[in-house]
Design a protein that fits this description.
Elements: H1 17-23, H2 26-41, H3 49-73, H4 75-78, H5 96-117, H6 120-141, H7 148-152, H8 154-157, H9 159-168, H10 173-196, H11 198-204, H12 209-212, H13 214-236, H14 244-266, H15 273-304
Helix pairs in contact: 2-3, 2-9, 2-15, 3-5, 3-6, 3-9, 5-6, 6-9, 9-10, 10-11, 10-13, 10-15, 13-14, 14-15
Length: 312
C-alpha cells in the first residue's frame, strides 16, 4: 500500500462471505456488467447465449478483482474517510494480505477465462483495464494529481468496448462512442460527490479538485464537462447505435443534467452547507440515472433494430 506504516486494524477477523464480496465493489461491478452487456448486445454480430453469459461473468470477475486491489492499496486512506471507513480492510474484517491475494487470483482467472470463452483481444483489453484501474489510477493518479478522476475515468469506460470486442473481435467507432459517454460522464459525477464529501478528501490528503483548486473552480469544471457531455450524448443519437428513441431520451436527460450543472455553478458559496448539499446530492443522484438511461436506450434500440422498429 502507499503508506508503508499502515497495518490492518487488530481484530479476530471473524470474516463473513459478505465481507469478501464487499471487497469486489458490487455496485461498481453492476455498472460494469450492464455497460459491458450493452456493448456486447448492441454489436452487429450475434453471440451464442452461453458464450455471452460466460464472457460477461468473467468481465464481472475482472471488475471485482480491480475493486479488491483498489481496496487493498487504498486501505490507509479509506480508514480516515467517513464514506469508506466501514469497508472490510480498514474496519478490520478482512486482512489486507487476503484482499491482495483475492484481487490477484481473480485478475488472472478472469483474463484467462475470457480469452478462452471469447477471444484474446477481449482478454487483453480486460487485463489492461484491471491494470489501469489498480496501478495507473489507484497507485499513481489518485494521490498525485487533481486530474485523477479525469484520466482515471478511462478504467470505468472500457467495459462497453470489451463487450463489443467479445462479440466482434475488433474495435469500432460505435464502441468508442460508448467509451466516450462514460469517460465524459465520470468527472461531473465524481466532482459532485467530492463537493458534498469535501472533508473526506481533505482528511485523507487526496488531491481531488475540490481540495487543490477549491469549490468554485470545481463547479466551473462540472458545467464545462456537462456541456461537452451533452453535445456528445445528443450527437450519438445520429450514429449507428442511436436512433429516434435514443435521441429523444438523450435530449430530455441532457436538458435536466445541464440544469443541474447550472444550479451547482450558480450556487452562492455564502449559502449554508446544508443547502449546497441538496443541490449537489440531487445532481449526483441524477448522474446515476443519466448513465443507466443512456445505455438502456442504446440497448433497446439494438434489440428493436432487427425488426425495423428502431434506428434511422
Amino acid at each position: 500500500m502507499a503508506d508503508a506504516s499502515y497495518t490492518t486494524p487488530a481484530g479476530d477477523y471473524d470474516t463473513q462471505l459478505g465481507d469478501y464480496f464487499a471487497l469486489l465493489k458490487p455496485r461498481v461491478m453492476s455498472l460494469v456488467v450492464f455497460t459491458a452487456l450493452v456493448g456486447l448486445l448492441s454489436a452487429p454480430v450475434s453471440v451464442h447465449p452461453v458464450i455471452a453469459f460466460a464472457s460477461i461473468l468473467f468481465v464481472a470477475i475482472g471488475a471485482g478483482a480491480s475493486g479488491a486491489l483498489n481496496m487493498w492499496w487504498d486501505a490507509d486512506i479509506d480508514g480516515v474517510m467517513q464514506r469508506t471507513a466501514r469497508r472490510p480492510i480498514p474496519s478490520g474484517r478482512v486482512p489486507a494480505g487476503e484482499a491482495l491475494s483475492l484481487g490477484l487470483a481473480l485478475s488472472g482467472l478472469s483474463v484467462m477465462m475470457l480469452g478462452l470463452s471469447a477471444n484474446l483481444l477481449a482478454a487483453g483489453l480486460l487485463a489492461f483495464t484491471i491494470f489501469f484501474y489498480a496501478v495507473v489510477y489507484s497507485m499513481w493518479l489518485k494521490r498525485s494529481t487533481p486530474q485523477n478522476i479525469v484520466i482515471g475515468g478511462a478504467a470505468g469506460a472500457f467495459p462497453p468496448v470489451i463487450g463489443w470486442v467479445i462479440a466482434t473481435g475488433s474495435f469500432s467507432i460505435e464502441a468508442w462512442l460508448m467509451f466516450a459517454l462514460i469517460f465524459m460522464w465520470t468527472p461531473p459525477h465524481f466532482w459532485a460527490l467530492a463537493l458534498f464529501m469535501k472533508s473526506d478528501y481533505n482528511d485523507a490528503d487526496v488531491p481531488m479538485l475540490t481540495v487543490t483548486h477549491g469549490r468554485r473552480t470545481t463547479r466551473v469544471h462540472i458545467i464545462v464537462y456537462t456541456v461537452l457531455l451533452a453535445l456528445l450524448a445528443v450527437g450519438t443519437g445520429f450514429t449507428a447505435i442511436g436512433g429516434p428513441l435514443y435521441l429523444a431520451t438523450a435530449v430530455v436527460l441532457n436538458i435536466l443534467f445541464l440544469k443541474g450543472a447550472v444550479d451547482i455553478w450558480r450556487r452562492d458559496e455564502a449559502q449554508s452547507e446544508a443547502d449546497s448539499y441538496k443541490v449537489e446530492k440531487r445532481f449526483f443522484r441524477l448522474s446515476l440515472w443519466y448513465l443507466f438511461a443512456h445505455f438502456g436506450v442504446i440497448l433497446i434500440e439494438a434489440m428493436l433494430r432487427p425488426y425495423g422498429l428502431a434506428g434511422w
